[in-house]
């Protein structure tokens, strides 16, 4: 064992497993016990390669004096605990402490809270960092050199520089998974919160993170660069939310190949000069070895949607593999810029949504060879057209215990946008049911499927409205109704027709082909009754002169069987 401080050297042995209390006993001039499980590091401390330090007690608290170093050459292990272990510097001083892991690939940091530190440097150390918190660092929080650390489920916030960084002339392929990065780069330097240099033969994974800026107008979200034309950098950027930064994602240089998929790039518009940045995604290639494949990304509220600069090889979708990226409401100076191909390279961008439903409108927000002969050509047709529709609406047992003894229930969507469910004499309790809603990509439905609804009501007579909407606010409203089977065959009520619909001349025909008298009630969408009556077999003319314009719901009933239809008055 060899534990070193500035003033003390303990003779080497074969190494062993130690706790903080053991170190305090061995190095009293370097580590002081201030109270039970509370320690103060007074001098530089090094854990030698053959030694292991175990941080195990739930309420351990380590205070590190200004300017001191903790050097981990051996193995640092942290056990699971209910509350974080706090490692804290002296916030009254400007010279914070430093932590170094060197050739320490078996080390772990789990459920540790580090604050008022200068930086944590990883050198040839495949360290695993999980469920930690890092705040108020005076420099970048974690930097790595020639290693592939795993950093997951951690929280980086309120730090002066980048949360994770590597040098431009080093390499590594970290896995950055399910973390939160919030309000970093407070020094307001031109750096992203995640700032990475070249990779190796492995792949860099940046997956499932939230990266949000607040105070720094110069800070971006993610930056990948290979400026030295060394190695090959492979990157997967997936399922991240990147918002309120100077820009969302940028890659620049040589030999970078990225897959950018299923991310949200929202309101990255803090750059005051659009000529200097503000893209949701920016690909700046020094040659065409800078490649990016974009799929299923949500890009809105940025100064530019996607910018492709200098040389590049960008794939935003082909005829055989649609991009399904959503780009809308990106722009500056009163002009929309969803895609700007500021390069001589051509690119494919087929099957994307451009905030519109026609190709002429898409052309107006795509800047390429049609706008400047020196630009490369963007092949963007056909576009992805979004219709505000629900394609399936079901009640499934896996989401609803009330259906355990009844089985799954599948809705029938009629031509007039009514969604019908048919049940027999024994009716399941449908007063608190979560539906499963199938819809086109990027369509939203209100209320959504995470909100339980009452599909029966007190009198087995309840209609629930669902509105599907596209990002450009085209909408379509569906009426969901549970039909209790009675004397009328289950398909007969669906034959009832209201014409004309919409009503334009102050009346409509109520067509009843069932052969039965049906009671009916006409209500506003907020439930107020405006008319009622009995529908006899055949046709009836109903006046609407006394009604205001808008949408109404007419519910027909025969015994316990119900049907609700929409009527529009214009």
Short description, anyone?
The chain is mostly beta strands and 570 residues long. The chain has 2 helices and 58 strands.
Please tell me the total number of domains: 4
Number of helical elements:
2
The helix content, as a percent range, equals under 10%
Number-wise, the strands total: 58
Q: What strand line-up does the widest sheet have?
A: 1-5-8-11-14-17-20-23-26-29-32-35-40-42
Specify the overall morphology.
globular
> What is the arithmetic mean of pLDDT?
90
Q: Main beta sheet, described?
A: 14 strands, mixed
- Unreliable spans are 1-14, 486-490
Please report the distance between the alpha carbons of the first and last residues: 87 Å
Strand content: 35-45%
In angstroms, what is the radius of gyration?
32 Å
User: Structural class per helix/strand content?
Assistant: mainly beta
Plain-language structure description:
- The protein has 570 residues and is mainly β.
- The chain has 4 domains: 1-139; 172-385; 386-484, Sandwich (Immunoglobulin-like); 492-570, Immunoglobulin-like (Sandwich).
- The chain contains 2 helices and 58 strands.
- The strands form 10 sheets. It has a 14-stranded mixed beta sheet with strand order 1-5-8-11-14-17-20-23-26-29-32-35-40-42. A 13-stranded mixed beta sheet has the order 3-4-7-10-13-16-19-22-25-28-31-34-37, covered by helices on one side.
- 42% of the residues are buried.
- Mean pLDDT is 90; it is low at 1-14 and 486-490.
């Amino acid at each position: 064992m060899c534990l070193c401080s500035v003033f003390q050297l303990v003779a080497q042995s074969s190494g062993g497993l130690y706790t903080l209390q053991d170190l305090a006993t061995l190095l009293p001039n370097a580590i002081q016990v201030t109270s039970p499980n509370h320690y103060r590091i007074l001098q530089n401390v090094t854990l030698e390669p053959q030694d292991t330090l175990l941080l195990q007690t739930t309420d351990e608290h380590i205070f590190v004096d200004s300017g001191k170093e903790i050097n981990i050459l051996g193995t640092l292990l942290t056990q699971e605990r209910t509350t974080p272990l706090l490692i804290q510097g002296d916030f009254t001083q400007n010279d914070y402490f430093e932590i170094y892991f060197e050739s320490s690939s078996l080390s772990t940091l789990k459920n540790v809270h580090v604050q008022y530190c200068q930086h944590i440097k990883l050198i040839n150390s495949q360290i695993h960092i999980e469920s930690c918190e890092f705040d108020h660092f005076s420099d970048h929080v974690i930097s790595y050199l020639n290693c592939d650390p795993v950093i997951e489920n951690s929280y980086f916030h309120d730090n002066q520089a980048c949360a994770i960084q590597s040098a431009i002339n080093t390499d590594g392929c970290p896995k950055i998974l399910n973390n939160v990065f919030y309000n970093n780069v407070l020094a307001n330097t031109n750096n992203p919160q995640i700032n990475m240099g070249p990779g190796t033969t492995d792949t860099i994974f940046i997956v499932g993170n939230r990266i949000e800026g607040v105070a720094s107008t110069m800070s971006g979200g993610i930056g990948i660069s290979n400026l030295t034309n060394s190695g090959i950098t492979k990157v997967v950027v997936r399922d991240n939310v990147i918002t309120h930064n100077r820009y969302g994602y940028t890659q620049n240089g040589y030999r970078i190949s990225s897959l950018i998929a299923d991310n949200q790039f929202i309101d990255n518009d803090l750059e005051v000069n659009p000529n200097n940045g503000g893209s949701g995604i920016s690909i700046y290639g020094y040659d065409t070895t800078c490649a990016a494949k974009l799929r299923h990304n949500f890009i809105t509220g940025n100064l530019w949607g996607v910018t492709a600069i200098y040389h590049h090889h960008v794939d935003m979708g082909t005829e055989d593999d649609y991009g399904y990226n959503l780009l809308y409401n990106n722009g500056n100076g009163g002009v929309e810029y969803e895609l700007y191909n500021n390069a001589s390279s051509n690119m494919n961008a087929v099957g994307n949504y451009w905030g519109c439903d026609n190709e002429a409108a898409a052309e107006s927000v795509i800047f390429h060879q049609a706008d400047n002969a020196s630009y490369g050509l963007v092949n963007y047709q056909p576009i992805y057209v979004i219709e505000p529709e629900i394609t399936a609406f079901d009640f499934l047992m896996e989401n609803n215990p009330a259906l355990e003894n009844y089985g799954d229930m599948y809705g029938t969507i009629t031509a007039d946008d009514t969604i019908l469910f048919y049940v027999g004499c024994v009716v399941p309790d449908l007063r608190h049911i979560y539906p499963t809603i199938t819809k086109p990509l990027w369509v939203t439905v209100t209320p959504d499927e995470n909100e339980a609804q009452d599909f029966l009501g007190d009198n087995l007579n309840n209609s629930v409205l669902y509105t599907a909407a596209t990002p450009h606010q085209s909408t379509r409203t569906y009426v969901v109704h549970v039909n209790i089977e009675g004397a009328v065959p289950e398909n007969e009520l669906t034959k009832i027709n209201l014409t004309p619909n919409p009503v334009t001349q102050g009346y409509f025909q109520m067509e009843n082909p069932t052969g039965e008298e049906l009671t009916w009630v006409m209500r506003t969408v907020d439930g107020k009754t405006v008319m009622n009556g009995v529908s006899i077999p055949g046709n009836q003319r109903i006046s609407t002169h006394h009604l205001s314009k808008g949408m109404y719901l007419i519910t027909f009933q025969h015994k316990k069987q119900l049907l609700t239809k929409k009527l529009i008055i214009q």
